Amino acid sequence: MQLPYAPCRRNSTGMGSFLRGDVVIAPVPFEERGDAKTRPAVVVATGADDRVYVCPVSSKPSFDSPCIPISLDDFSAGGLDLFGESFVLTSKVHVLRSGEVLGKRGRLTEETVTAIRELLPQTACPGDNHRDTNRRSP
Length: 138
Prior knowledge:
Distance between the termini: 43 Å
Strand content: 35-45%
Structural class: mainly beta
Radius of gyration: 15 Å
CATH topology: SH3 type barrels
Number of strands: 9
CATH architecture: Roll
């Protein structure tokens, strides 16, 4: 079943409004080649100057860096056309302008968003202290 994606709602300045955990469709740079591929991505933070920090979603896991599997059960609203698991590539945080986002597909549960944020590189989202630095490693 094909799920339609909703066009982004724009605020009075023409910018989209996004929240951490939104699953969006956007042109995300693909590999190191610099070419962008329109694909799902998870919003991990928003910033000043209309910036949106996203991690791409892939149908294949990364074998050399952390990723989080997601399924339809991980959505609190909406979803993706998933025939199996998809994977949030947490080591590949990209910065986009909100105007580059084509639409929203859904929203992940808080539990899933927390799991994603725990795997983000420490410097992925400037000014965003997403890790509990008082926690000790086992």
